[in-house]
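From the shared-data thread, chain only:
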Amino acid sequence: MKLVKLSIAVCLMSATAMAGVQGRITTKIDAQKAQIELRGVKAGDKVTLLEEVCEGPKVKLCRTEKVGVATVSKVIDSETSEIKVEGQQPLKDGLLIEKQ
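Structure, as tokens:
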């Protein structure tokens, strides 16, 4: 029973830790720039662009796939920043952002 409680506690702590390093695109500025909501970044930081892919006929199984890399070009406030995509990867709505 202690092992089950410990496992649950570890899962909750890891989920909480991941919540602080992931964000989303809030506004697309153009094909290569966007405004994001992600705490704890500064100008020059690299972020990974992730796309959530869900498959399955009845029960959807979802996973995230890396689709690109961007650099934080401007910090607007403690939660909002602007990024510029590296290379020719176009921005899509609904991409997740993860600090590297």
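The domain at 23-99 is CATH 2.40.10.410 (Thrombin, subunit H).
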